[in-house]
């Protein structure tokens, strides 16, 4: 599991980005990958998988 911080999350559209702690890389997150609801600046743990347009965060949980 990786950790990071929610950089941006649009609740009404159901997507956003997480900044990974280890790489400072922006990783896309969609509401279907959430375990808990998230908001901007939340600390989260997550797994990464390859998506059609790049990396996607899945199994995202607040920590």
UniProtKB/TrEMBL annotation:
Protein name in UniProt: Cold-shock DNA-binding protein family
All copies of domain CSD, residue ranges: 1-62
Gene Ontology cellular-component annotations: cytosol
Location in the cell: Cytoplasm
Cytoplasm found in the keyword field: yes
Organism of this sequence: Pontibacter lucknowensis
Entry GO MF terms: DNA binding; mRNA binding
Keywords from the named record: Cytoplasm, DNA-binding
GO biological process, one term: pre-miRNA processing
InterPro entries to which the protein is assigned, alphabetical: Cold_shock_CspA, CSD, CSD_CS, CSP_DNA-bd, Lin-28_RNA-binding, NA-bd_OB-fold
Keyword Cytoplasm listed: yes
